[in-house]
Amino acid sequence: MSAGRQGAPIWERSVAGLGVCLEVQREVLHRKTAFQEMEIADTPTFGRVLSLDGRFMLSDRDEAFYHEMLVHPALLAHPHPQHVVVVGGGDGGALREVLAHPLVTQAVLVEIDAEVVAAAKEHLKSVHRGSLENPRVHVVIGPGEEYVAQAREMFDVIVVDSTDPIGPGKALFSWQFFQNCRRALRPGGFLALQVGSPFYFPGEFVETLQALKAHFPVVLPYLGFVPLYPGGLWAYALAGQDDARSVPDLSRRFQGRGLKTRYYRPELQSAAFVLPQFVAELAEKAGVS
């Protein structure tokens, strides 16, 4: 996007032969940071949109669809989530949903790119809603994989709100990173992360589940719908020592914590783990059932 451009489309080249095109009403920001190309623009269909390295990360209109499904299954599966770390997610959306749980006494946000956090504070207020400056939050600027490698049984939940496994995000899908996540979790803790599109990127989906399975006894892929992302169908994974597909008092936990959501609901948590046949076959290929 060139400075001040209006009306021209912006593109995400999702896969060979497929792209997502959005009309721009107003360019808000376009900057090359030390790690990636960052763009923020206002669009007529999705509202304000954040793009990193040519990939759409979020929009005003549907960011809650993604952030709620990334965060709430893990935090509601845990009976007392007090200490949580969000790796990536410098926009503050996942952090916002973490802080919605009143049991959380401390949340650490680890973001490699300080400019993303600064831009979010100024231009994505509808996303972070003050979470980036909440007194329960400690913001660490640096590689998430290095921070987690130094932690030992510090967290009840680890949320990985990463980009795709390219560029700065690649290390957050590695075998070594998942091993360190296991060590950083307290007993009974959970790791939650996005694992992309099982339709367009089945290889990455399988490889990520295999890497998780090497370190966690229970790995559960589940699905959600994010209109901005290619195809809309989006996959996540929940990893830990316990099976989080059926939490007996899930509705009571949801109500007791006073959560207000746009997409997530307790009934959806069990349903999200029921996979379409082609996704179930990919999970089986990864050794996850």
In CATH's first tier, which class of the largest domain applies?
A: Alpha Beta
Q: In the CATH hierarchy, what is the architecture of the largest domain at level 2?
A: 3-Layer(aba) Sandwich
Radius of gyration: 18 Å
Residue runs with pLDDT of under 50 for 5 or more positions: none
Descriptive report:
It is a single chain. The protein is α/β, with parallel strands linked by helices and 289 residues long. Helix 1 (63-77) runs parallel beside helix 2 (93-99). It folds into 2 domains: 9-58, Spermidine synthase, tetramerisation domain (Spermidine Synthase, Chain: A, domain 2, Roll), CATH 2.30.140.10; 63-285, Rossmann fold, CATH 3.40.50. The strands form 3 sheets. A 7-stranded mixed β-sheet has the order 9-8-7-10-11-13-12, with helices on both faces. A 4-stranded antiparallel β-sheet has the order 3-4-5-6, with helices on one face. The protein is 30% helix and 31% strand. It has 10 helices and 13 strands. Helix 6 (175-184) links the parallel strand 10 (155-161) and strand 11.
